[in-house]
Structure formats: C-alpha cells, structure tokens
C-alpha cells in the first residue's frame, strides 16, 4: 500500500493526517510515552483513561496526581479519555479535560475489567443504550463545539443478538448526537483480551456508517498489521495499543511501509538506548527522582523485548531503583551497537491494553 492510497485522518475539524495513532493505555500512555510516540511518527495520541469523579475533584489532589492532566504543545493533537457511570458527572469531567488543554474528549465504553464493570463504567454501558446515549449527549452539549467528542467501544457485551442491536443503536445514536469519530475494538467485553479481534466486524461497521469516521482497534502488533487492518476493513484510522508499549518505532515503520518503502529494520541498540534514556528523563521530569524508577520498570520490560538478550536485560531493568542503575543497565547491555529485533507477538499474551485499574 503506497502513501497515496491512505486517506488522511480527520476527527471533526481536527486534521490528524497519517491514520495510525497511539491508543489510550491505562497505566502507560502518560505524557512521556505520548511524546516519544509523536517523535517517532504517531500522528495523534490519547492519554490514559481518567475517571470523571477524579476529574471533578482534581483540585483537591497535589503532587501524586498532577501527571494525569499533564500535556504539552509537542504532543498535540492529544485526546483526554474519560470514564464514569452517570451523565452529569461525566459532562463535568469532560470540561476539566478541556480546561487542562486536551484537544479531544474521548468517552470510554470499552474497558472490560471486572471491577470497572461492577461499578457500571466502561464496557458496562454497551448493555444500557439509553444511559450510554445520555452520557454522550450531555458530554457533547457541555464541551465547546470546537472540541471533538469521540467514543471508544467494543463490538458488544457478547455475541448475542441483543448485544449486537445495542451496539448499533449506540453507534448510530452517537453520531446523531454530534460525535466526531468512533473507535471500535473487534473483541466483545466478555472476551476481554482473549481470542482474535474480529476485523470482519470492523469492516461491517465501516460499511454501515459510510462517510462517518471510524477507527479500528485490536491485534495491531506490527507496522504490517496496521496497514493490513486499514486495507481489509476500510476504517479511517487504526489505534495501536499493546503493540506500541516499548516499541514506539511501530509508527515510524508504518509510515515507511505506507510510503512504499521496505520495512525498516528494528532499531539497533544505540538507537534503543537513546530512546530509553530520553523516556527516563521525561518520566523523571514528570514524576520526580523518587517515583520515576518504579514507574519505568514496566516500560523497561517492554523495551527489553527489542534486545537480542531479552531475558537478561528484562531482569535487570525490572530491578532498577534509581537513575544510576538505569544508566548502568544501558551501559552494560547497549554499549555495542548490535542489531535489534522485532518484539515477538507472544510478549503481549495476557496483557491488558487498557487495564483501567486506576478506575
């Protein structure tokens, strides 16, 4: 597929451009990860999901929570993703995202985590269309018209006829209420992260909505996956979730393939080390020296998958306690500029792409 064959992505009045973007990833897609992704080719990024109740009360919080709303001009356009249970508080939370400087408000109706469903949030709303559409309507009314509102959905609670009917009722109602785009994950809520994502369903959804904007999600672990989803389903864009954690080069690689170039080789160890060092620097700037090391361990696990000595590097990065130890690992394992490797698909097995654990 050549670059000329890819239609630029627009979300309402917002021009995004290249239609491969970074998804919202709870616990991961904070400001440092988003900045790195933008520098390496992501055209648009979404922050980790935030709870409406937290946003309404956010003025009461100090140092330990300020990172949730942090964004910067370099990463724009950037979306704030919101999750909650009832429409009035949802709308108030959406306004907080706008006040914080996010360019888009994204409504999460996709999280399948058990405790989230038990609190009537996330994917729970796919089983109650009236409440879902009230949330969408109230949010759209509350947010300034210049700010696009989007929705993230799964293909339903399960594969029953009732669930399918509910999905399409919410989908159609969302666009009728002024939503600029809908992202559809090809698994059901009940599936969580098991089994394949149905790209056939994504194709059906795109045919159903016509010219309206739909993004696809699910099973995007390589640059080829991204372009293949665009080709097979006809969706207007794709959102890379688990496949982007520790591998921000996926966006750069997708751009090369779309331009008709050969797939770039995986980054060598010196290039990897430079990105790991910069990611740590940005995280330390946001979280401070004391909190940064623990936060960066989970990223280290994923970055290590690109190293030819994955197991040893992973083990050392998960034990770091300060900046000095992080740099010592880089000095030991990344000193020689050996070829890297594409991360094996199996490292994503059982990993939630939007854990929603903080919600």
Describe the structure.
There is one protein chain. The protein has 359 residues and is of the alpha/beta class. The chain has two domains: 3-258, Aldolase class I (TIM Barrel, Alpha-Beta Barrel), CATH 3.20.20.70; 269-333. It has helices at residues 31-39, 52-56, 87-99, 114-118, 129-142, 161-176, 199-209, 223-233, 249-258, 269-287, 292-303, 310-317, 323-333, and strands at 9-11, 14-17, 20-22, 45-46, 50-51, 78-83, 104-109, 149-154, 181-185, 213-217, 237-240. The strands form two sheets. Strands 3, 4, 5, 6, 7, 8, 9, 10 and 11 form a nine-stranded parallel β-sheet that branches. The chain has a two-stranded antiparallel sheet with strand order 1-2. Helix 1 (31-39) runs antiparallel to helix 10, helix 8 (223-233) crosses helix 9 and helix 10 packs antiparallel against helix 13 (323-333). It is globular and about 55 Å long. It starts with 8 loop residues before the first strand and ends in a 26-residue tail after the last helix.
Give the SSE map.
Elements: E1 9-11, E2 14-17, E3 20-22, H1 31-39, E4 45-46, E5 50-51, H2 52-56, E6 78-83, H3 87-99, E7 104-109, H4 114-118, H5 129-142, E8 149-154, H6 161-176, E9 181-185, H7 199-209, E10 213-217, H8 223-233, E11 237-240, H9 249-258, H10 269-287, H11 292-303, H12 310-317, H13 323-333
Parallel strand pairs: 3-11, 4-6, 5-6, 6-7, 7-8, 8-9, 9-10, 10-11
Antiparallel strand pairs: 1-2
Helix pairs in contact: 1-10, 3-5, 5-6, 8-9, 10-11, 10-13, 11-12
